[in-house]
Amino acid sequence: MGDPRDEATFIGPMIDVKEADRVERWVEEAKAAGGKVLCGGVRNGRFYPATVMENAPHQCDVYSNEVFGPVACIESYDAFEDVVERVNASRFGLQAGVFTRNVNKAFFAFENIEAGGVVINEVPSVRVDSQPYGGVKDSGLGREGIRYAIEDMTEPRVMVMKNVGKLQ
């Protein structure tokens, strides 16, 4: 953890103390409800370390809301279809990252996960400017990306003419 302007920094500070307080509170709430912190979870001022939680209860904020902090929740599963169902139970749907070597599961995820994008074997925040980037449900309106930003910032118009004579 360190200065975000330094290229050697892996993780920088939270935007402000209030947000660091919120992330800390959400992790502590999940711990008290039975979730287990596997790594991280100890705050230092505005710095909150990369934290992995196992089996955070689904009703806890750290599991059910967009954290906007360095926290990942993990849990085991028996059937891949159950995972997709669990993902779709969320009111959010920005992008999903699915890690698999099974092409059938990759296509199943893409066809069934309710999100603005499904990224296979890469973090869900990966993007290319030419691709549409945005979410569904409570994860925003519209899409980012060059073409989509231009369309969002312009107003298409149409002019229809009939029998107006020759151009002078």
Describe the structure.
Belongs to the aldehyde dehydrogenase family. Its EC number is 1.2.1.9. This is NADP-dependent glyceraldehyde-3-phosphate dehydrogenase. Pfam families: Aldedh. Residues 1-157 form the Aldehyde dehydrogenase domain. The protein has 168 residues and is of the alpha/beta class. Helices cover 27% and strands 14% of the residues. Helix 3 runs parallel beside helix 4. The strands form 3 sheets. A 3-stranded mixed β-sheet has the order 1-2-3, with helices on one face. A two-stranded antiparallel sheet has the order 4-7. It has helices at residues 17-32, 61-64, 80-88, 103-112, 146-152, and strands at residues 36-39, 51-54, 71-74, 92-93, 95-98, 117-120, 136-137. The protein has 2 domains: 1-75, Aldehyde Dehydrogenase, Chain A, domain 2 (3-Layer(aba) Sandwich); 77-155, Aldehyde Dehydrogenase, Chain A, domain 2 (3-Layer(aba) Sandwich), CATH 3.40.309.10. It has 5 helices and 7 strands; from the N terminus they run αββαβαββαββα.
